[in-house]
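Exercise 7. Given the components listed, write out the predicted structure of the assembled complex. Treat all entries as one system.
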Amino acid sequence: MTEKLVIWTYDWVPGGKSGPRGHVRDIRLRWACEEAGLPYEVKSVPFEGRDSAHFARQPFGQVPFLEDGDITLFESGACLLHLAHKSEVLMPRDAKGEAEVLEWTIAGLNSMEMVTVPWWFVSLFDGPDNRLKDWMLQRLAHLDAVLTSHEWLAAGRFTVADLLMADVLRVPRLRAANPHPALEAYIERVCARPAFKRAYDGQMAHFALGDS
Ligand SMILES: N[C@@H](CCC(=O)N[C@@H](CS)C(=O)NCC(=O)O)C(=O)O
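Answer.
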């Protein structure tokens, strides 16, 4: 019998309009498990007062991290690729398909999220005059050009690369300045998947429990 995977996240995060609920990155791991039908449970570390046991498993004191038997991994991208090796639903097994999944997963993290996260932080101070706006708009336009002729990023079908890219970009504020039709349709298509809804609802319920 497959041992249950353990997805670790915080016991609570702020809610409300500006809180991160629904966007904490454990959702990526939940979503992948839901897509692949991999059994998992969710456990918590305290949001306040991160201790040495937490830092031993996530050196930056962040979440998520994943436990798979005696293997513990941090970094959501590494966790996703680990899960992708467990299920063909997340990544095909042919060399070309796998290479495409790898490049687009890393692109989501290293070409897109490395722009969107700084943009988001700068926007808290600069508002609409965000100095990183053009940089981000250029990345979104280039991705839109790809999606104009591709329904999915890799291997001609849904893979973990789409899950990651959609999670990075589903924050509406990121795309509000200049919506691109193919990109908008793509985010809608990926996030309409029932597995995303189950993952999202699971995260919201988890943090709601923390309120009490
Ligand atoms: N590169 C990391 C980023 C993890 C990350 O930013 N986690 C957030 C929650 S989504 C966090 O723990 N933030 C609190 C902090 O940085 O102290 C990953 O993808 O796992």
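Discussion: The domain at 95-193 is CATH 1.20.1050.10 (Glutathione S-transferase Yfyf (Class Pi); Chain A, domain 2). The mean pLDDT is 96.
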